[in-house]
Amino acid sequence: MKKRTPLATMRYVAKNLLIVVGLVLIWRGIWYVLDGIDLMIFDGSHFWTGLFGIIVGLAILYLPDNDLKEIEKL
Description:
About 80% of the residues lie in helices and about 0% in strands. The protein is mostly helical. The chain folds into 2 domains: about 40 residues; about 30 residues. The longest helix is centred in the first third of the chain and has 37 residues.
């Protein structure tokens, strides 16, 4: 196994940290957009958008392989 230099380790950590921050910012943006849609369409009632989100999420997990084994991992 090849040993990493301190500089290579720092680059690895920085790259992964930037990926994590980028993903968090994407989800933050999606969250705010969905909250705006919720306010415009449903007058801030989170029930219907929450129910819709659960249905879409289950469909996304079910459709690729026609099962929900991903939920078993939780």
